[in-house]
Every structure is written in structure tokens, then in C-alpha cells.
Amino acid sequence: MQDQDNKSYQELHRPSSEFESRSDYLDHELKIMKPRRWALNLPGRDFRFEWEDLVPAIAGTIGIIAMYSAVMMSWADGLTQAWDHVNLGKDFAIEVARVEMLIPALLFCILASGFINPRANLAGNHGPMIPLIGVIALAGAHPLALAILLGVFGLLLSYFKGGSRLVNLTGEGVAGGLLVFLGFTGAMSQIGLIQTWATGLQADGIEAGSMGYIGLVVLAINIVLYAFLARINKRWLAIPACAITGLLVALALGAGFDLKFETEMGLPNLNPVYWWGSTEQGWQLGLPNMAHFIASLPFAILAVAMWSPDFLGHRIFQELNYPRGTDKVLMDVDDTMTTCSLRQIVGTAVGGGNITSSWGTYMIPAAIAKRPIPAGAIVLGSLCIVIAILGFPMDVAVWPPVMRIALLVGVFLPLLEAGMQMVKNTKDSQAAGICIFASAVANPVLAWALTMLLDNNGLIGDKERAKTLSIYDRVIIPASVLVVCLIAMLAVGMLEGQYGIPSLL
């Protein structure tokens, strides 16, 4: 073992033909890799490209097109309502999404996660924040002000190792309950959206609602396909296989009239001055002032507070699917926070509008496929750049039978499965149950903070574990996280619609 530690990846690499199975070869690759943090990593010397890298790359590309499009449309709708002089539509949303797919893909997928630090997961999209974007706009926040604050807070948390500390303080029962809730609610949401799309199909001579069966058939066939892939240990193929199946089935059943190719080939405007330099161009907002920063502050705190459980879920997927002895290739939570923070500032400064987080639609299939971060990151970044220039593949990727199925089988079902695997005994099930209940009462972030505090003090879950923790880990840190999350949610009115508690702003 000591001899292996002294040898380089190149020296330890063996061709796949020497192994009994492909899985054994991939396990060996994970065990011998020695990624260089914040230094140059080169193909052949430090890692290799394998055909399995195509799967998370394609899955991540499909997922991010869908998420970016949803984010930009939410910004367009919210800002148009909030600002009298702003009038943004679909064309704006597509252009901004293409900006986000070009520059950040080059700098933070290919260069950062591919060559400079393969232990930092790719900086993707902050899915739980999408429903809040309308609220953010109406509160008077500015996308650029929000990005700067979020980036600064993220860098501070990363510098003080706060992200990894929070991950280590989250017990398996709490983490399992969080993943079960996110997986179940997310899956139900996607199923509902597919059925809403199918029942809303209407063409000449077709009665409204009469094509609702298309959604049911698409779901049924993909459930069978997903089960078959799981049976043969090929779940890492789920996103491309099921997304393509959803596309073909929907077309075969006559839903093709709903698929519109409207995005033309070309480059978006890459001049930051165009996007932020005038109230008549780009976002039509101009540069942010102090009022915009104040309005953006609680949302930035909330977004960063939500990072830790998000990152935790992605790292858990690696731990569940990688063999023992692969700690060196697991994503580093603090390094991922650093790249997410920098990507947030840079991506928005050049004209983007994404709210970033760890890239789940890449990491989850990559972990299932037993592949490390770098090679897939380079392939994914390249795909994003090509598709952003071509334009028309974005129209296919956001079509409901493709996008919803991709999110369902690539993110939410694996989250649900991973959460159930983490609940191993009665103590874990107790903590998981309280976390799920609290998530249903309030929301997953507040539930995570509350159950972490209870679990670390032995009030739920494993009482013996609480005895091994310091006063900081048991009380001060969890209680501070709970207070910060609660204040941020009260400030932005997250509890207003459900419980009538008005926004502090």
C-alpha cells in the first residue's frame, strides 16, 4: 500500500483488458487517481477519458439547459412585473442562458474542474432557488448585486472551512431524511408537470385534454426502462436513455406539433457593458445601487445557507457508489464552494443571471457511473459551448417529455434511493422521520438546520454520537445556522404564503 502511495497515476494505471469486468477497471481507476488541488492536471498523466464520461456529460448538459432556461424565464417574468420600465421576454431569456452556457462552461467546467482542481465539483444551478426568483425580483433585488453578495459569502464560508464542517455535523439519519424528502417531492412535481403538459396539448381538430394519455405512456415506459437499467447495474445511463425514450415516445404518439425550433445558430452578446451598462439594453436595470444590495442581502444569505445540504447530497452519492480507498477523488465541499462563488460573480458580471450551486445533474450520474470529476467536466463544458452556439438543441432539451424525464430519473429518483440507503437503523429512521416531517411543515433548509441541532444534542437519533461532539458542534454552530436560516426566510417572506407570517422587508 505504501508503495502504491509513492507511485504516480501513470505508473499505477493498467489497461481495462487486464480486469475481469469493466466495473473492476473503473474501481481501480478511482483508487489510483491523485488529483492535484489548484495545480495543472493533464489527461494521461493525472486522469483518462473513458466512454462512461459521456453519460454524466450528456445528462448534465440536458439538465443545465432546462434549469438555466427556467431561471432566466423566471427573472424575465419577475423583473417585468417589478420594474415599470423593464420589458423582458423569451428572446432575452434564451440569450442570457446562452451567455451562461458559454463563458462559465469554459472557465469553470473545462478549466477549473477539468484541469485546475478536479476535486471541485462543477458549478451548476441552485434548483431550490428557482421558485423564489419572482419573490426576489418583487423585493427590489438586483441580479448583479445578488451575485456579488452570494459570491462573497460563499468565499468566506469556504475560507473558514464552514461548508465541510456543516457536512460533517449532519448525521446520517438527518441527511437520509433530507434526501428522501427532496427526492419524493421533486419526483411528484415532475410527474405532475408532465401530466399538465400532456393534458394541455391541443392542435387543430384535437379536443383539449384528450391527449393526456401521452404523459401516462411516457412515464410508464420510462419507469420500466429505469427499473431495467437498475437491474443490470446501468443506472448511470438513465438520463440520456430515458430522455431520448421520452422524446421518441412523445413524437410517436403525435405530440410533435408542440415541439418548436425557434433558437437560431450564433453567439449571444458577450459584452458586459451591453447587459449592465444601460437601462435600455440587456437587463434594462443598469448597475446596482446600495438599495439593491440591501434588498438582495437576505436572499444571498439564504442561498449560501442552502449550499451545504445540496453539496452534502452530491458527495454522499460518490461515497455510496465509489469503492473504499477513493477519498482522494471525492468532491471537496470547500473547494466546490470556492469555484461556485467565483463562478457566481464572474458569470453574472458578464451578463448572466444564474444562481449557482453544485451541479447535481452531472455529479449524480457521474457517481453512479463510477467516474471522477475531470474528464466528464471537460466533455460537458465542450458540449455546453457547442449547443449554445448551435441553438436549436436547446429547444429539444426544454421540451417537457425530455426535460421532466431527465430531471426525474437523473436527480429525484436517485436522491430518493440514496436517502433510503442512508437510513440503516431505528436511530437513523427517527432522525430521518423528524427531518421529513419538519420539511413538510416548513421547508427542507429549515428542517435540516433544526434536525441537525436536535440530532447533535441527542434529542433525536443516536444519543451516543452527541457525547463525542464539542459544545461548538452540538450547540453553537447548529443553533447559529438555524437562526440565520430562520431570519433569512422571515426577511424574504418564505413563510408568508403558507403561514401568513409577513416579510420583514
UniProtKB/TrEMBL annotation:
Q: Which keywords accompany this UniProt record?
A: Membrane, Transmembrane, Transmembrane helix
Kindly give the InterPro entries that the UniProt entry links to this protein. DUF3360
One Pfam match, given by its short name, reads DUF3360
* Ranges that cross the membrane: 54-75, 96-117, 129-157, 178-198, 210-229, 236-257, 290-308, 373-392, 398-419, 431-454, 474-495
- Protein name as catalogued: DUF3360 domain-containing protein
